């Protein structure tokens, strides 16, 4: 296709658009400065009040701090406060042996739980996987066979090496699970007593 010739009357070719661009730039710059002024000063006539309030409130807080420090010293020197402080210290000293005992028991229970958990977690994972497999199997004979295998696995004895180095035997999976749950319950009760 042949190209069309450019018309001599085309305003883009025949005259400069620079004055139009200059006028648009001046208008855009004027609206930009107006928007900035309006955002910072025009729409916020309360800024002067805000600044004055800040300085007055800061002065108030400084005076209130000195008054509260004085009030605090007065309260701390009162007989009621001294009695309460003495009662608190007496109660803290009386509870210190029990707190120490609970902390030691919690440390021991944590170690026992960790030892039992190492064995119990693996066995529970196998039991859960087997249970899921049984539930999703469609064949009745396969279900029965898998259930038998699971029951045999649950009936197998296991042993746990406790933190003191002794092996603790468990007759079956249920006994292991009950021991694990009892240890966790005991830890929960001691923690509740402590806090």
Task: Tell me what the structure shows.
This protein has 195 residues and is mostly helical. It has a domain of 110 residues. The protein is 80% helix and 4% strand. The chain is built from six helices and two strands; from the N terminus they run H-H-H-H-H-E-E-H. A hairpin with a 5-residue loop joins strand 1 and strand 2. The chain is flat. The mean pLDDT is 86.
Strand count: 2
Total number of helices: 6
Q: What low-confidence regions span 5 or more consecutive residues with pLDDT below 50?
A: none
Helix amount:
over 70%
Q: What is the strand and helix layout of this fold?
A:
Layout lengths: L10 H4 L3 H25 L4 H31 L1 H58 L3 H16 L2 E4 L5 E4 L2 H22 L1
Antiparallel strand pairs: 1-2
Helix pairs in contact: 4-5, 4-6
Briefly, what is this?
The chain is mainly alpha-helical and 195 residues long. It has helices spanning 11-14, 18-42, 47-77, 79-136, 140-155, 173-194; strands at residues 158-161, 167-170.
Overview features:
mainly alpha; 195 residues; 2 strands; two-stranded antiparallel sheet
């Amino acid at each position: 296709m042949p190209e069309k010739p450019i018309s001599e009357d085309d305003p883009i070719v025949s005259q400069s658009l620079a004055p139009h661009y200059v006028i648009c730039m001046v208008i855009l710059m004027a609206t930009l400065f107006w928007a900035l002024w309006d955002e910072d000063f025009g729409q916020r006539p309360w800024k002067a009040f805000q600044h004055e309030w800040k300085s007055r409130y800061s002065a108030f807080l400084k005076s209130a701090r000195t008054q509260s420090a004085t009030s605090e010293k007065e309260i701390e020197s009162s007989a009621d406060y001294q009695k309460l402080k003495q009662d608190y210290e007496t109660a803290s000293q009386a509870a210190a042996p029990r707190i120490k005992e609970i902390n030691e028991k919690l440390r021991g229970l944590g170690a026992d739980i960790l030892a039992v958990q190492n064995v119990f977690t693996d066995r529970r994972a196998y039991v859960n996987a087997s249970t899921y497999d049984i539930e999703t199997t469609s064949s009745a004979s396969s279900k029965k066979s898998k259930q038998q295998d699971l029951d045999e696995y649950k009936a197998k004895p296991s042993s746990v090496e406790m933190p003191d180095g002794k092996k603790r035997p468990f007759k079956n999976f249920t006994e292991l699970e009950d021991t694990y749950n009892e240890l966790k319950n005991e830890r929960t009760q001691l923690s509740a007593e402590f806090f």
